[in-house]
Amino acid sequence: MNQLTESPDHVRHTGHPRKGFFTDTSICIGCKACEVACKEWNRNPHDSEYELLKSSYDNTGSLGADTWRHVAFIEQDREQIGRARESGRALVSLGMPSFGPPGQDQASNLAGADTTPPDTSDFRWLMSSDVCKHCTNAGCLDVCPTGALFRTEHGTVVVQDDVCNGCGTCVAGCPFGVIERRSDGTAGPKAKRDFTPGEQAPTRNVGVAQKCTLCHDRIVDGQTPACAQACPTTSIKYGEREDMVAAAKERVAQLHAQGLTEARLYGANDSDGVGGTGSVFLLLDEPEVYGLPPDPRVPTADLPRMFKRAGIAAAGMLAAATAAFLVGGRA
Amino acid sequence: MTVSGFDDYRPPEPPRRRKLGGKLRRAGTGEGRGEVPVVPEAEFTSYYGRPVVKPPPWGDPIAVYLFLGGVAGGSALLGVGGQLTGRPILCRNSRLAALAAVGVGAVALVADLGRPERFLNMLRTIKPTSPMSLGSWILTAFSAGAGVSAVSEIDRMTGSRLPLGPLRRLLRVLEGPAGVEAAVFAAPLSVYTAVLLSDTANPTWNAAREDLPFVFVSSASLAAAGLAMITTPAEEAGPARALAVLGVAGELTAIRFMEKNMDPVAAEPLHLDGPGRMLAWSERLAVAGGAGALIGGRHRLTAAISGVVLLGASALTRFGILRAGIRSTENPRYTIEPQKSRLAARRRAGVIHDSITTSE
């Protein structure tokens, strides 16, 4: 990445390790406990009129200002399962470089194992709990003009509610469509749904950009983020990012050894367009099936080039104005 | 896929691959055929057709600001030119135009904030990675120079009736340097908004990053020149007419280069529906206004009409580009297809280390 782009390295002096999630979607049961725990802990308002979205059991829709965990539901038939398995196999056969310790080539381990895939079932349900990626090179943080978005001592990216002026640049800057500006109070909790009967809880941080904080208020006290704490199947794991990536690599190798070539990691590669993500995922199909971008790139990666082009354009404008006075002078 | 009788009520699944009319299908889809693809060719799948990236909450006030920021920048350049070449009316009108445009533009900018009362937080820090931060500083520096030089003009127009006291002499001394200072920040003011739009994950704006700055400075030049052709008598507006013609030529060229360099899928929103019509009309108006300035610019009425047409062209360009970007986030295809094809292209070229999806 270029010299401009920020990364968690600059807060390494704090001595805190970088924290992250590993979301293993192969053991997600779609209970949405993470969504509920997140809403309750962070006191986020509800974000719809309880409408049915006609997308399997997903009536949340997507991540946004009021939804910091979102469980996706995808229903697939035999043909789609086969295609996912093939695309995963193609990924393995690309000869992706191994990121494990040298001498432990997992691909060669796989070659020796019995990788006959289990019988393909007629139907499967993919369930995946999506969350802010807490990118190594975070687009939202880079483009924030006020400094409201900052890198915490845990290597996560958090909005300072009292600094953000709601300009919305971060919303456009996020390659994953995570951060959003909280709209006016229309989506506030209804009195009848609130904890205190007859008293409406005010919507906090209206007009301000909002997203997952990786429960910064919990992890500073050594607590586990609400979603990971609530997850009944340990599909959401929380810990030091290095451990999370190691666990993810171990798990995907295990699934590959069972012949489940559709398993793949998302965000575990530090050479990708966002420098790797703090929230690593194990997916069972292409990322776009889950609504994730297949090749995200932090926009500021190209910023020096953009500044250069803008500089040339500005010089051109000055030249045009000078020329106009030279030509217009004779008239 | 039905597994039980109850599932008969299930709504039909959206087709996995969206078939598109031949018109939208890009001609270059077949590129790279003939060789055995390592990975399947880019195919469009999405999560229930929902967007992948979010549109920024930028409405019409931001488009108005893009337009007025350009008008202000171009006007300051015409103002300093008039100041240095002895065209007092062009200088006066351009200075006033610069202050008015930047004033209204800044109000539009603040109005679109989620927390307008915190607009000063923009100046908490100077962040080179944030075009919005740099832009706020450019806007502030520009406004200072434009303000001083314009207030001096207002004072002169009112016969020195502004209650300035001893500050009047200081104002007269400063107005020249202030006009030059504004002119220094004029081109950055006109161009930074292009970087602001391109430095995002927005499919259309980001794909336009190579050439959008050229479109924006051209649009700013022709708009400011158009305004000067309305306000200034023809004998002093010669440079404005020349700048208008140069701006039109620049914009027509830059738009073509921009679309040629963009991913064909990401460029589609520039041609569809409302934004597409706006940009098409912007081009027609720019041609008409440029021709008017070139041929009939010395006739006062023709010049004024051409000026209005040019301002309209610039406004349509800004609204069109802004809305095309917003539209490009509504359909996940514009995010997913260009990303899949660039990933596939890198893999064909043997670059396999930088994918976010890995098998181990």
UniProtKB/TrEMBL annotation, chain A:
PROSITE patterns hit by this protein: 4FE4S_FER_1, 4FE4S_FER_2
Annotated organism of origin: Arthrobacter hankyongi
CDD domains attached to this UniProt entry: FDH-O_like
Keywords on record: 4Fe-4S, Iron, Iron-sulfur, Membrane, Metal-binding, Repeat, Transmembrane, Transmembrane helix
Superkingdom of origin: Bacteria
Record bears the keyword Hydrolase: no
Transmembrane segments: 310-328
Protein localization: Cell envelope
Protein name: 4Fe-4S dicluster domain-containing protein
From TrEMBL, chain B:
UniProt entry tagged with the keyword Transmembrane: yes
Region (Disordered): 1-35
Biased amino acid composition, Basic residues: 16-26
A Pfam family hit: NrfD
Topology term for the membrane: Multi-pass membrane protein
Entry keyword set: Cell membrane, Membrane, Transmembrane, Transmembrane helix
Domain of life: Bacteria
Keyword Glycoprotein tagged: no
Transmembrane segments: 62-84, 96-114, 134-152, 212-230, 303-321
Compartment(s): Cell membrane
Family annotation (InterPro entries): Electron_transfer_protein (IPR052049), NrfD-like (IPR005614)
Similarity annotation: Belongs to the NrfD family.
Name of the molecule in the record: Polysulfide reductase NrfD
Taxonomic lineage: Bacteria, Bacillati, Actinomycetota, Actinomycetes, Micrococcales
Gene name of this polypeptide: nrfD
